[in-house]
Amino acid sequence: MKEIVLNDGNKIPIIGFGTYKATEQEGIEAVKFALKNGYRLLDTAAKYNNEEAVGKGIKLSGVPREEIKVTTKLWRENLSYEEAKSEFETSLQKLQLEYIDLYLIHWPANAKNYDHWQHANAEAWRAMEDLQTEGKIKSIGVSNFWPGHLEALFKTARVLPAINQIEFHPGYWQPAVTAYCKTKNITVQSWSPLGRGAVLENETLKKIAQNHKTTVAKVCLRWVTQHEVIVIPKSTTKERIKENIDIFDFKLTQEEIQQINDIPKLGYSGEHPNVWPDREE
Ligand code: A2P
User: Fold this and answer.
1) Which family does it belong to (predicted)?
2) In the chain, which residues have pLDDT < 50?
């Protein structure tokens, strides 16, 4: 499996396994199955309510802990120094782990929900930097941050975020955020690479899939990785869990990548960093 070297020197696989919406029993089985089938990067979050399941799946898989990279996230309503520290400990306990490989701020604080949003992000970040210094986190990063949130964070940050995990799929791939992160050497990770299934019937994607005798899902995932973006597809279906890691038997041409880049807005979640808890259409 191809790995990406992060700006802090740590390496992580270009494909990981997403667990959003997986329930307790489903989550245990899916994580175990994913690890047995070659996944070595797992993605969960305090908000997903399945960290315990992910932890159990890891133990039951028999794969040594040190071979697995585990990501979890600090929820957006807990952005202060103290809460970041205590929420992190709770996640660690639920996952039954000694350390986390990648800890992310799930969403930036925004002006609708915080009196001083910049301060809230900065303080949560300071706690994460301290936890990293203590050895409890290998890499620290953010999620759903736009350049403005990152610029604000840089004013006080001692450590540059290693990762920015954003909504990234055909029909909504945030090219400006992606390009900005590249200039700062922040690796982009894609959430919802299939636009929650909305892209599967797109004609452009279907045609490209036919050219390569493959599926639309694999075309989407390959397109993400050809952007040098890490992808974390989620599925609780065994066949799809296997399909989603088996995407290196074909390569998209530059022309096909461009066609996919140009797909009009499609499958957008409506989740917006400055608008939460509301959604956009
Ligand atoms: P399922 O769990 O039944 O496989 P996204 O990651 O863009 O949010 O999309 C997730 C959705 O896409 C899930 O509902 C998942 O359903 C479905 N999915 C995941 N992998 C595939 C695949 N290879 N082919 C079709 N649908 C998929």
Assistant:
1) Belongs to the aldo/keto reductase family.
2) none
